[in-house]
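During the practical work, I worked with a single protein chain and the tokens that describe its fold, as given directly below.
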Amino acid sequence: MAIEVKIPQISEETDTAKVAEILVKKGDTIEKDQPVIAVETEKASVEVPSSHSGTVREIKVSEGDEVKVGDVILTLEEGEEKEDKEESEEKEQEKEKPKEKEESKKEQAEEKEKSKEAEEENKKEKPEKEEEEKKKSREEEGEEKKEKETEGRGGEVKKETEEEEKDSGVPEKPAVRRLARELGLEIEEVEGSGPGGRVTEEDVKSHTKEEKEKTSTRQKLSLPDFSKWGSTERKPLSGIRMETARRTKASWQNIPHVFQFDEADISEIEKYMEKNKEKAEEAGGNLTITAILLKIAANALQHFPKFNASIDPEKEEMILKHYIHIGIAVDTDKGLLLPVIRDVDKKSIIDLAAEITKVAEKAREGKLSPDEMKGGNFSISNLGGIGGTNFTPIIYHPQVAILGVARAKTSPVYADGEFKPREVLPLSLSYDHRLIDGAEGAKFLHWIVQALEDPYKALLGA
């Protein structure tokens, strides 16, 4: 008997994926839960396991195919033992059929008897129902009469409401403000055409239409024919690259970014890392500045809870989170991934170093699950291993801040009446100006600098 193995629900947000690799071939004997193909979603590469054991009879997909939930990946031939078992079950079912027929006749007779009783009951209840319907009709007529009586006062009520709104100092009606919020507009951006400059629903809709036309005009920009000037080649963007493009574009268009810069003397931290290097290796990790920054950032988020929050613009609320999960940017062949380290505040620096090494390897091998990239409250992007003096990372929505780390350099630092060579680390902080003011951003980054320059503050969370 042939068994179909189908694409399961890959993640909560994704129903489609691209086949990246076929992991089995025709004739292979596989076990249940054994990976059979690797697919690439918008967020990660995921291995799809088999739902049954058996021998591969036919593979229904090819590398590069677009697949969706429920599509058949391959068919399996089950063993003879299972087929015999199924035949035995079928025979047993055949034996049970006469018995089932007899029970069915008995049930039908009982149903007939119940039906007769129900008909008699309905005859008794009919007069009562008719009386209830007449009563309901009379009540509805009374309601209609009341409505007509109040219609005459409608103009006066409306006038009173408008006067109250005017006296309250709020020029726009609540319905207009709600419409603006739903369309993602700030009411102050809309020019009002009503009495006294009041913004109307038509003003909001007209403003939205104008903005859409502007966006549409930008989107219609076309590319020239590059082949006129030389040889060209087209390659499809990976799902991860496309998801990164979509998210960064949306973040840049919707979040008012502010960028803060500072530098930290990490000479003492360098000594700490050198001293504890072997200890981290024994735990299965590499002790890097990222592990130190994770611990420091966790302490900073406790001191500055706004940076550990998200904004709900529709409800005009701030969502404060009582847990600390931090994403770390990992550069891979397929694009930038952001695995999340959970409960950073509850882990030691050595534990964090081991976990960073593990998730970074999984990211580069394409083995991260979608869940491993969800739930982050804050992010760290360290480009120090590549180079550069500074950069301005884009906030990862729905977070409100991200810390950028560039390459440390040896610089002359004036201390104790003389210049000394010190290791200086450039830092940049991007934050959402809707929630965080410049002064708060400066204080947050300065706290991180102080913690880097005083390792005991970082370790003790002082």
In short: Residues 80-85, 144-170 have pLDDT under 50 and may be disordered. Residues 2-81 form a domain with the OB fold (Dihydrolipoamide Acetyltransferase, E2P) fold (CATH 2.40.50.100). The chain is about 45% helix and 20% strand. Residues 144 and 407 are 77 Å apart (CA to CA).
